[in-house]
Design goal:
The complex is a heterodimer of chains A (344) and B (235). Chain A has 344 residues and is mainly α. Chain A contains 17 helices and 2 strands. Chain A has 2 domains: 17-177, no CATH class; 178-332, no CATH class. Chain A has a two-stranded antiparallel ribbon. The longest helix of chain A has 23 residues, at 17-39. Chain B has 12 helices and 2 strands; from the N terminus they run ααααααααβαβααα. In chain B, strands 1-2 form a two-stranded antiparallel sheet. The longest helix of chain B is centred in the C-terminal third of the chain and has 33 residues, at 193-225. Classes of the chains: A mainly alpha (344), B mainly alpha (235).
Chain lengths: 344, 235
């Protein structure tokens, strides 16, 4: 008699790409809501533009590559890229900015490398970095958060700024402000101390940036839920935020006037969002448990280095892309020991 | 020297398309990527390389019978370095603006692998006239890629074509400059180094696609005619 034999895994989570992607979108939702409240309905317009562009580009590339449409469009992976870009880009940026970034992410960073599962770099971050180095002015014109001096652009104003161009300088100046990290960077460059900068500008809140910290808390909640659901590997955000907190603590204790405190680093800019939603992309991240810790820690260290010593106010995107490059090597050296095999 | 000298049309086809230095052999990528930020820069460096290849290939073919095999590489390098120095000094004298823009990449033609590659694989085995033709064909193939990539990057990057052509062709060159897109914001990425890599990759992909299509067409023809052994076997 022949018994049926099956290979492992014998019990699995019932995960599918579509389920994972949908859960990422659910986890993003609270953070997106907070962003809409804090920065106005411009975020919603950007999200719609990104989603439409992403779906159009995905369809086009699937047709060109003669791949079936339904399974790849239905898995919502293009929508995740679109949502990540909508969070990362300035809420009142011109329409072509997000369209160009999303198209670049889907066409070049995703499909030219072989499509979902084959991209060595995080597509959303490629799109973001392309825009950041090509259009620094547009990319650094951020909307002012609610409660910080200026006023939040309403739906009509947001549409006007996004589609009508930034010709209306009076309106643009009224609704935009420098980001906390940008302010910190500029003022430190002028010889101010961290404490003086943070006391002197309304963009700083009680932990990170005013308004930003609420969005970050929402992303933290969504991210923890993803870790609990095993959609994201906990080692990556733990490694990244841990390393960022550790190195910023060391330098903050050594020289508090020049270096921002650890809680500020963790709760401002893209640190939390990047740790849970960008770095955990299962395709471009490291895949072994120890490797994920190292990969995350590398991103945290690089983020701090770029923020404190580099030429850009935030460095999460560059840090993620650099560690994407390193991920295959990290995996190579952190392969878990197979049960029963000798120590290497 | 060689048993069967290649035909002239074969040399031209190889240099310009089939074995193109930039798209197939991928030799001399450093100058190709670094100087192709505009059409004029690409054309300038390309033509300088044509001149160098013409000089080195001819010289090496002329001296090929009495260069001892053991020391041929150092001899070739000395010839190449002399030719590049001559071309560089000439450009410094007659095209100072272009010389300033291309800067270090003119003397670096010495290190362009395709120059030594043609010397070693062609000029040292063939008659001077053929070697000269090979040098020009290879150089023009390189120039073609440099100019196309340069135009592509310049067009996407700043919406012009042949901007500042006057540094190469004198005052008359200004007429060559085309402002293709007006009120264009510029796409800095295309002019920065990543644009060079992405642009070259797209050009290589384009060539491979064209070649695959041509091959498919030529391969399909006899089957349709129905006179190949395979077609008979199927029938």
């Amino acid at each position: 008699m022949l018994f049926e034999t099956r290979t492992s895994p014998h019990v699995h989570l019932g995960n599918s790409v579509a389920l994972v992607m949908r859960r990422v979108l659910y986890a993003l939702a609270p953070g997106l809501l907070v962003l809409i409240v804090v920065f106005g309905p411009g975020v919603l317009v950007q999200l719609a533009l990104a989603a439409a562009t992403a779906l159009a580009c995905e369809t086009l590339m699937l047709l060109l590559r003669r791949r079936p449409l339904a399974p790849f469009l239905g898995d919502a992976s293009a929508l995740v890229t679109a949502a990540l870009l909508a969070v990362a880009l300035p809420p009142l940026g011109p329409w072509w900015l997000i369209v160009l970034g999303t198209a670049f992410a889907i066409v070049i960073a995703k499909h030219l490398y072989g499509g979902l599962g084959y991209n060595p770099f995080n597509p959303a971050m490629i799109g973001y970095v392309v825009l950041l180095i090509s259009f620094p002015l547009e990319m650094s014109t951020w909307a002012a958060p609610r409660g910080v001096g200026g006023h939040v652009a309403g739906f009509g104003e947001a549409l006007g700024l996004i589609f009508g161009g930034h010709g209306d300088h009076v309106l643009l100046d009224a609704v935009s402000s420098a980001t906390p990290l940008d302010t910190l960077r500029t003022q430190l460059g002028l010889g101010q101390t961290v404490a003086a900068v943070r006391a002197g500008s309304p963009v700083f809140g009680w932990i990170g940036g005013s308004g930003w910290e609420w969005a970050n808390l929402a992303f933290l909640g969504g991210g923890l839920w993803m870790c609990q659901r095993r959609v994201a590997a906990w080692q990556i955000p733990a490694g990244m935020l841990g390393a960022l907190a550790l190195i910023s603590t060391v330098f903050w204790i050594a020289e508090p006037a020049r270096f921002a405190p650890p809680w500020f680093h963790v709760m401002s800019g893209a640190a939390v969002f990047g740790a849970f939603f960008i770095a955990t992309d299962p395709v471009s991240a490291s895949t072994t448990p120890r490797g994920r810790l190292i990969y995350g820690a590398g991103i945290g260290l690089l983020t701090w280095l770029i923020r404190s010593l580099g030429g850009f106010p935030d460095g999460v995107a560059f840090a993620v892309l650099l560690m994407n490059l390193a991920a295959p090597t990290i995996d190579q050296y952190t392969l878990p020991r197979a049960f029963g095999a000798g120590r290497a | 020297m060689s048993a069967s000298a290649p035909s002239k049309s074969e040399i031209l086809a190889n240099g310009l398309w089939r074995n193109n230095t930039g798209l197939v052999a991928l030799l001399g990528l450093c100058p190709l990527l670094a100087t192709s930020s505009s059409a004029v820069n690409g054309l300038g460096l390309g033509l300088a390389t044509v001149l160098v290849l013409l000089l080195t290939n001819t010289t090496i073919a002329l001296i090929r019978s009495f260069v001892p095999n053991e020391v041929r590489i150092p001899v070739f390098i000395v010839v190449i370095a002399s030719a590049v120095t001559a071309v560089e000094l000439a450009m410094h004298a007659f095209l100072p603006e272009l010389h300033k823009v291309l800067g270090i990449f003119i003397p670096l033609i010495v290190t362009n692998c395709c120059v030594l590659g043609r010397a070693e694989s062609f000029a040292s085995k063939n008659a001077p006239a053929l070697a000269a033709l090979d040098g020009v064909a290879t150089g023009l193939g390189f120039t073609l890629v440099l100019t196309v990539l340069g135009s592509l990057r310049e067009f996407v990057g700043q919406g012009t074509l042949f901007a500042s052509a006057d540094i190469m062709f004198g005052e008359a060159g200004r007429m060559l400059t085309v402002q293709v897109l007006h009120d264009y914001r510029g796409f800095l990425l295309a002019i920065l180094p990543p644009g060079a890599f992405i642009g070259l990759a797209l050009l290589i992909a384009g060539k491979n696609w064209l070649d695959a299509r041509t091959n498919a067409r030529t391969a399909a023809t006899p089957v349709e005619a129905g006179c190949t052994p395979e077609a008979h076997a199927r029938a």
